[in-house]
């Protein structure tokens, strides 16, 4: 199974719809982000809409011209063939491909993608998408997810994503909600469980890097997050919109 890991996951600028464009990614990199993600892209449009594809290829091409500006292209979807074909169109200018398993918005619910693939009945589909990406592309493949319900299932899903060929996983340790993007503090203990397991009945964590997402409101929170979770890196999203430095 492919398991590639050439990227620095320490401080990551998260994928944010309508925000994670080229200027924002360059800004966060200039202020210390070791890796940035694009916003969630639609693989069906990458494969069928020439203007949409050209726009994002231009964005990625400029990123590629600047050394030290590694970028992960995030895609969404619920069909392995469609997702992999869309990803293939941009793979030549990407440093990794990420599958979105965390979008909680209504359009994701209506389209049955993002966080709405976290139910156990959809795990085989998630495995198929990750495996197809990992075996089709000569790039690292990752997944960004939210908590399953119940939360204890999140580790089991992450282990299956690992077995399918993912190089790392990022966990936004909150549950998905259409009505509320954020429901209190993130459950960072679940990130630690992903990394190390609970220790109960010999439960072990995943064997690939784990990135923690949540509860970072200032720079000091980054160190606190790493200490609490033991994660391999921290991903920051909305806080960067107000203070990218």
Automatic annotation (TrEMBL):
Family to which this protein belongs: Belongs to the Dus family. Dus1 subfamily.
One Pfam assignment: Dus
One MF annotation (Gene Ontology) recorded for this entry: tRNA dihydrouridine synthase activity
Highest classification ranks of the organism: Eukaryota, Fungi, Dikarya, Basidiomycota, Agaricomycotina
Reactions catalysed according to its record: a 5,6-dihydrouridine in mRNA + NAD(+) = a uridine in mRNA + NADH + H(+); 5,6-dihydrouridine(16) in tRNA + NAD(+) = uridine(16) in tRNA + NADH + H(+); a 5,6-dihydrouridine in mRNA + NADP(+) = a uridine in mRNA + NADPH + H(+); 5,6-dihydrouridine(17) in tRNA + NADP(+) = uridine(17) in tRNA + NADPH + H(+)
Protein's name in the database: tRNA-dihydrouridine(16/17) synthase [NAD(P)(+)]
EC number per UniProt: 1.3.1.88
Cofactor dependence: FMN
PANTHER family tied to this protein: TRNA-DIHYDROURIDINE SYNTHASE, TRNA-DIHYDROURIDINE(16_17) SYNTHASE [NAD(P)(+)]-LIKE
Keyword Oxidoreductase assigned: yes
Keywords: Flavoprotein, FMN, mRNA processing, NAD, NADP, Oxidoreductase, tRNA processing
Domain DUS-like FMN-binding positions: 14-245
BP term (GO), one: mRNA processing
